[in-house]
Amino acid sequence: MANLLDQLKEMTVVVADTGDLEAIGKFTPRDATTNPSLITMAAQMPQYQAIVDDTLTGARATLGAAATAADVVTLAFDRLAVSFGLEILKIVSGRVSTEVDARLSFDTDATIAKGRELIAQYEAAGVSKERILIKIAATWEGIKAAEVLEKEGISCNLTLLFGLHQAIACAEGGITLISPFVGRILDWYKKDTGRDSYEAAEDPGVVSVAAVYNYYKKFGYSTEVMGASFRNLGEITELAGVDLLTISPALLTELQTTEGELPRKLTQAAADAADIEKISVDKATFEKMHAENQMATDKLAEGIDGFSKALVTLEELLADRLASLEA
């Protein structure tokens, strides 16, 4: 009998949720996605020190000996996610998601500019923009920025997505892909209800992502759904059949070493048969639905804050490393 990972790959695109190049190579996913926390973690691994050092020395060479350390670190910081992305693209056959600075999540113009800048860096390194997804937090401002980038031929991945209102706004904006966060939704409900666990089929994160998938398929939206942020194997197997799943190395290992039958849970036929009301989401509707969804409100704010703190940590790490290199 085949393992669960091989069966999952037959019905869903499997994406590696890591900045660890060795882990990506082990599981042969089509795509890979990173975030500020994962890049910060990878940048501290000894085996990837050369990537960090090359990025810092490249920034110094670009700016010259007279540039301040702070300026060098700022440029290296802007380049590091792309440096990891370029290495990832040597391993995967598909796309890599590279995230815009989370501190720009409520600034549409700055997000557009940063998205264009990231694509320019990849193209300067000889990588086509078709292999890149610009990852942006699914605030209203982020969604509007992604709409502009999509019209320029720059594909986007809207992340930190917790509510149907965010998903609908992305679909109506013609966004390429969304990343609803399964495990973080579960975390919120466990804390809110005091429950220790949920059956996989009743997991609030699973239910939320299934609802988004069915809505998209029912009404013919082209935006892809990529479930993300998993806490256990059951959350993954209950979403078998969704467009994509981005999975951590630990859970990829568990899937690869577990044998058993994996039935498809999400289908176009089931979505077609579902009784779903179509909703149009403008800014006022988005803000109203967001305010009424305490889980989405809490988790979006928490996610942006967490990614922002990871970026501060990364800046400090780069400053320390540059000082060591130039001592």
Descriptors:
327 residues, alpha/beta, TIM Barrel, 11% strand, globular
Can you put this structure into words, describing what you see?
The protein is α/β, with parallel strands linked by helices and 327 residues long. 57% of the residues lie in helices and 11% in strands. The chain has helices at residues 4-11, 21-27, 36-43, 49-63, 69-89, 108-124, 140-151, 164-172, 182-193, 204-218, 233-237, 249-256, 268-273, 283-292, 294-325, and strands at residues 13-17, 31-33, 96-99, 132-137, 156-161, 177-180, 224-227, 244-247. An 8-stranded parallel beta barrel has the order 1-2-3-4-5-6-7-8, surrounded by 9 helices. The longest helix has 32 residues, at 294-325.
Per CATH, the architecture is: Alpha-Beta Barrel
Biggest sheet descriptor: 8 strands, parallel, barrel
Q: Work out the number of β strands.
A: 8
Strand order of the largest sheet: 1-2-3-4-5-6-7-8
Question: Mean pLDDT across all residues, rounded?
Answer: 96
Proportion of residues in helical segments? 55-70%
Q: State the end-to-end CA separation.
A: 57 Å
Topology as a string of helices (H) and strands (E): HEHEHHHEHEHEHEHHEHEHHHH
Overall number of domains? 1
β-strand percent reads 5-15%
